[in-house]
Amino acid sequence: MVETGGAPLRAAVVGTGLIGGSILLRLHRAGLPVSGWDPDPATRAEGRRQGLTFPDELADAVRDRDVVFLGAPLAALPEMLARIGAGTGADCVLTDVGSTKSAVAAAATAHGLAHRFVPGHPMAGAERAGLVSAVPDLFAGAAWVLCPTAETLPGPFRKLAALIVDVFGARIVPMSPTVHDSVVALASHVPHLLAGGLAGATAGSPVRDAVLGLAAGSFRDGTRVAGTPAKRTVDMLLSNRAEVLAQLAGVTAFLDGLTAALRSADGDRLLAYYRRAQALRASLPERRFTRSRRSFPLAGPLDEELRFLLELGAAGGHLTGCEVRDATVTYLVHRPDDDEPGGDGVAPLG
Amino acid sequence: MVETGGAPLRAAVVGTGLIGGSILLRLHRAGLPVSGWDPDPATRAEGRRQGLTFPDELADAVRDRDVVFLGAPLAALPEMLARIGAGTGADCVLTDVGSTKSAVAAAATAHGLAHRFVPGHPMAGAERAGLVSAVPDLFAGAAWVLCPTAETLPGPFRKLAALIVDVFGARIVPMSPTVHDSVVALASHVPHLLAGGLAGATAGSPVRDAVLGLAAGSFRDGTRVAGTPAKRTVDMLLSNRAEVLAQLAGVTAFLDGLTAALRSADGDRLLAYYRRAQALRASLPERRFTRSRRSFPLAGPLDEELRFLLELGAAGGHLTGCEVRDATVTYLVHRPDDDEPGGDGVAPLG
Fold first, then answer.
1. Region for residue A205 given its phi and psi (left: phi exceeds 0; alpha: psi -120 to 50; beta: otherwise)
2. I want to staple B342 with a disulfide (CB 3.0 to 4.6 A). Which of A338, B153, B317, B346 is the partner?
3. Contact B284 A142 (CB under 8 A)
4. Which parts pass through the membrane (chains A, B) (predicted)?
């Protein structure tokens, strides 16, 4: 049981779609007192129907809470942050679940909440929607980015990290907002663009019907996230525009190289490109991690702990434990083993 | 039991990797006399270890057979076709499983085998490899393209269609070689290019390690077929070069439109693009078919039957039955219901 000073942690979730709703269900199942709120009255009614606490007023949902998760859409985050900041106590930890982090971090600073807001991003379940699709085990084993700062590290970050590991079974990936936005541009947003391009082009193609008839694994996989609600995808892309365009340029350049090699029927060059791609893909399910423990004195200094955390996330590592005891914080660390990045295709291809 | 003139059909499979091996296992499980051959002695030994008939000489494997499946790699098909044509009787039906059809159809014509060669393409299981990965149920419910001609329709096509439906439980999609190659360029080969671009660009990215750490569904799905053995992907792309480049141009144009809208932060336009993409993706798992029976007199004329078959495949339909009885051939036909192609995004966007 997650506790704060002996009493169970009191939580709220504001915005209870698929992600927020799944957080709410998990907290409820864990036996924590948790209230939910959503701007949609039908969602609040659905929540009550499921036996959850869903007051009609936002202020009633977040009052006297130790932690509030913001599941609101990206565009609504800055305003919701201000409202929730005003309705919660000075010790209440705030976090969000949005798919980009720099903008919301800046909004928290602008609202004077930077000392208790920890930007967050659980990486799970983008293609369904709504509280009705929510499931409490959505985050088991999933990566959950948290962005620590020197200001939030001592209290809010550690409290939230412990909660997310203990209650959700997620892997904490510590990252700065700017590194996060650059990484998800390539890990998630560009894949959404490619899927949109493939599905959209097929919709207008003269061979559309026959393509649907023959669509096997590669087409189904390559278009799956095009099934995400369009508005959500568009908001996500717009919120990370510069980084998405920058990472897309890298993918387009590689694709142009592939295309040029295909056009000139250069089999050797195509093979070099595809060996590089194959090695990268092979390293995905086969990643091996070395586990270790790393402790820091609670009294600080904080810069070493912060540097350690941010370096771990950038290296592809994560945390599966965060324990505060005897004036020490101890992290359970998973650092990826060196997998000879890129294999035989690592030399520049031109 | 599939029979020919009362006796069970005798089959052979030449080239027993994942696809050929799975065909062999299924025929064997169905109780048909079937022999296998592979140029790799270790594969032949593995086949014998599994209790299958695997002579050392190709000629011994294909002699006195009613049907031979060619599972050889694309590059080896023309030569293998000539050898197998010479080693089999005038009534022996030949088919292949390659991922493009125009080149092998031309090779069959060049070798004087067009009257008994039916180009084929089962759409299943591209990312594994080898007889050790073969499973007999690989094709259950899968699309299996067959290319009929007026010449092969009366005997070889109908015999093969019945075998594939009855023994493999696959859906027969009748198509001409040129339509097939154009459709698979968009349904399979362009997805392989996009996956290669995403995986290859990530391999060389400075944020590679962090991307692997955060890789969620969209990245895993978007790179999955980049895990296909590189040589096989390259041979497939090269064998369908012109069509792949043509279909890629359409996808790139749509992607350029998406990118331009993102660059200019045009949310409305992005939304229109993504609604089109979402509608296409939504139509994939929700396809509904109307079943019917269609009969033709065995005595012909054949042009009406051929036109019917090719039109059905181009419309995204398929066959799940082919029965010859009382001087009539009867097909069990599945034709997709009209699903308002493209939804609200069907108007030209660009």
1. beta
2. B346
3. no
4. none
CA-based nearest residue in chain A for residue B288: A213
Distance from CA of B144 to the nearest CA of A (A): 8
Strand partners, A169: none
**Does B281 contact A348 at a Cβ distance shorter than 8 Å?**
no
Across A49-53, A129-133, B67-71, B138-142, least confident range: A129-133
Say whether residue A141 is in contact with chain B using an 8 A CB cutoff. no
Residues 6+ away with beta carbon under 8 Å from A86? none
Instruction: Tally A–B CB contacts below 8 A.
Output: 373
A218 in B contact zone (CB under 8 Å)? yes
Chain A interface, best mutation among B220, B221, B320, by max A CB count within 10 A: B221
- Give the dihedral sign, CA A253/A257/A258/A262: positive
CA atoms within 13 A on the CB side of A81: 28
DSSP 8-state symbol, A301? -
pLDDT tens-digit readout, A222-279: 999 999 899 989 999 999 999 999 999 999 999 999 999 999 999 999 999 999 999 9
List domains and CATH numbers for chain B: 3-138 (3.40.50.720), 180-263 (1.10.3660.10)
Write the pLDDT tens digit of every residue in B49-75.
999 999 999 999 999 999 999 998 888
Kindly identify which residue of chain A lies nearest to residue B178, measuring between CA atoms: A207
> Cα separation of A231 and A43, whole Å?
19
**B228 touches A: beta carbon within 8 Å:** yes
Instruction: Find the mean pLDDT for residues B184-193.
Output: 96
Cβ–Cβ below 8 Å for A280 and B188: no
- For Cα atoms B145, B147, B148, give the angle at the middle one, nearest 5 degrees: 135
Q: Are strands B143-146 and B171-174 parallel, antiparallel or unpaired?
A: parallel
Q: Which helix (H) or strand (E) holds B59?
A: helix B58-62
